[in-house]
Amino acid sequence: MRTALLQSSGRPGSVVENLKVLDEAAGRAAAAGAGLLVAPEMFLTGYAIGDDIARLAESADGDSADAVAETAGRHGVAIAYGYPERAGEDVFNSVQLISADGSRLANYRKTHLFGCFERDHFTPGDQPVVQAELDGLRIGLMICYDVEFPENVRAHALAGTDLLLVPTAQMHPFQFVAESVVPVRAFENQMYVAYVNRVGQEGEFEFVGLSTLAGPDGIARARAGRAEELVFADADPVSLAASREVNPYLQDRRPGLYGSLI
């Protein structure tokens, strides 16, 4: 499945403008033959917007979700996008996957919050593995810091995830995560990992870009630079199956030895 990675910080603070950016990117993705467009963490509203996070938060089936569904259906491309999710008194850092026909496939709430900023504004999620089926691939959802915990990604591998989508807000000086950690996660868990970042200065944070889609061989199929761009790469189930045949990490595990990990 051809996958488009939207490396952009959009227009922080403006949901209307970010929906326009997403619509334009969906059109370009569809024209290039992509079946899936992935946007960064908190793309819908912006990341470093302080108390506006709570003000702009919406339910998973709110007006913005309807607008994204309309965009997906009109362009015929599935869309995964980050947003602040309102559920009662709680606000979660979430990502939602919407199919190419506009139906809501899955919604994931970030389980590992990074730093004081996130802990001050969000409630952590409690469901580590969220998946959906899309065009013959089992899609998994995760957000930014979550991928830095090997247990998290291994749980997805054991649940059969083929393509792990990781919208992120990766900031300086942690660019080694995009450059090194993400390809290793893809290799050690025998899956594709799409890591899609914000870019540029936003409040106190400098986002480093470097979005990538890494394959099960640990090689980046695509890698963005440090500017806004839309990059493309393929997640091929045939190549994935072949890679899993010759890399038996999951078969060679000895779970009985790992009790001390918990």
From TrEMBL:
Transmembrane segments: none
GO molecular function annotation: hydrolase activity
Sequence ranges assigned to domain CN hydrolase in this UniProt record: 1-237
Keywords: Hydrolase
InterPro entries registered for this protein in UniProt: C-N_Hydrolase, C-N_Hydrolase_sf, RamA-like, UPF0012_CS
Keyword GTP-binding appears in the UniProt entry: no
Superkingdom as given in the UniProt entry: Bacteria
Family, per entry: Belongs to the carbon-nitrogen hydrolase superfamily. NIT1/NIT2 family.
Protein name: Carbon-nitrogen hydrolase family protein
